[in-house]
Amino acid sequence: MSEPREIELKLECEVSDIAQLQDHPLLREASERGEAQLASVYYDTPDRALRAGGLGLRVRRIGDRHVQTLKAEGDGLFARPEWEHPIAGAQPDLGLLADTPLADILERDAVLEPLFTTAVTRKTFLVRQGSSTIEIALDVGRVEAPAAGDRIAPICEIELELKDGEASDLFALAHAVGALVPVRLGVRTKAERGYALASGDIDRVHKAEPVPLREEATAADAFRTIAHACLRHMRLNEAILLERRDASALHQMRVAIRRLRSAFSLFGDLVEDAMGERLQADLKRMTEPLGRARNLDVFLSTTLPAERERHPDEVGLLGLERQLEEARGKAYAEVEVLLDSEAWRSLLLDLIGWINAGPWLRDERGDRPVRRDEPARDFADRELDRRRRQVKKRGRHLDRLSPEERHRVRIAAKKLRYGAEFFATLYPGRKAARRHAAFGKALSGLQDQLGALNDIATAHDVVRDEVVREGGIEAGASTLFAAGMTAADIEARSADLLEQAAEAHAELIDAKPFWR
To answer: Whole-model pTM above 0.85?
Structure first.
């Protein structure tokens, strides 16, 4: 089936930024300019079959014309299959979509209903960047859904669509725009905003989603799709943190970053180049404030309440809580400064550009071209085998390992778990699904125990860094006593956790690999 693909990059901004950008020579001197009022109605079945199938169907009115568009998920962020047809009226014409994935989802007598609408003022400009022609669309408007009552979701975004030329020019233009006005990588379509508004969860914290890897995907395709999924996961939760302090959103943002860094590691020298190494280092360095805030969240929400239950009359715990709450406030303030910085916004644009047009894709040395084109499933088979052997070897005699050695096991297990999640859709069928569930359960059990042991080490760091070192004498004798007591109590759990971790490791090694 032929799939016409839309290559488009979304950038989110404020209305004032749109006005400023329109007045810049970049757009004033564009070869073509236009303005249109776009009113779109999005359709689905009552049981949301299109949404479940990763499709979005809309009918857009432009003046006295109607255009029907079906879009699929594509690689999760950047390039998306799209089928577009002019139609006679405002109702969808399913006959035009017989040769699209919609035909495999809808029954013959399927009923479509309008779910939400978008109203957008779009100003378009056709510009040259390098050797490419790129359309810049400035969209300002809103999403409305009857089920949401009076609530609306605002739309203010810049869309860059490659009409002809090289993807690298598209990302160069994104950086040029980012140098003029503060923009953020956009990861949510208008359809997604509408579905979220209609269901009432537009502000919810997002967990990692399944990665949509195609059966015919190459190793390079797989890396791009996985990296896109990680960036999407990160940006969805970053948007919440930009609005409010939310411990769950911060946790999920950190998970997304760990998953992205694990993807770099899983694909290894296949995606290795100097630019990628710099971006990885920048990502690790710049996101350190999130780690400090998360550690304090865990201590205050888990460790300290448990101490209160054990020692309800210990007054020093109140002083300990006050000091750590103050430290958490400072940590979240550092996170806010990071997320509001031009350096952070620029890093994400660098990442999306490198993922899709970086040097790693053009390196013709040795066998790298052949390895990039290797079937993704062959690559996944080999990598999952290697990571499983690594966990098996490092975890021998787990209950006798040093904390540093246990940390290495935890990192290896985490990469295996992320790899199992990343590559899951490459292994269809009931047998693979059953094995994947059992393998994931065993792997999760090992991670839970190793994670609890790591929380103990982290709690020691929190006590040392935030109370003893930062508080010093000013912390007060009772607070320092409570800190020491807490450290002793959490350390007492280590023996039991070590035994449970060793058992979980044995269960994992006995679990059948789902990829064989």
So the answer is: yes
